[in-house]
Amino acid sequence: MQGVNKTTQTRAQAPSVENQTETETIVLTPEQAARLAKRSAVGIVQILTAQALLALVVVLISGWLGGIEAAASALIGAGAYFLPNSIFAVRLLIGLFGGSNATAMSFFWGEAFKLGSAIALLGLAAWQFNQWLVWPALLFGLIGVLKGYVVLLALGKLP
Known about the structure:
Helix content: over 70%
Largest sheet: none
Number of helices: 6
Number of strands: 0
Distance between the termini: 64 Å
Oligomer: single chain
Order of helices and strands: HHHHHH
Radius of gyration: 25 Å
Number of domains: 1
Structural class: mainly alpha
Shape: elongated
């Protein structure tokens, strides 16, 4: 057999298990940390503003289509998520500028607080206002605030 070239294959050694578990800590300068905190804060405020504006639009549309009870129901639905979300956002902002480090568990508990509070507020509304509550409008308000970030995405302003 003439002209047969045998190519040699080299194998890259896979990193050992010890190397896969090692992580490097990234140390930020105070300037970098301040820039990151400012950018994060702007993003949080932008999302809250978009949610508030979308809640206002949803309440106005509900009032226009269904009257005052529908508008009030949409406001309750929007508030059921916006209020706990605002409290959590303020907590995040305080942490950003207060210098405390956020952990995955603190974020998890904040999200659990938001979910639990929203469910409690919706349950309270259903119990207290069941005589006049307009459920489609309430759900419209809730979903409107939940999807407030879509406004930023559509405008290209998502942080």
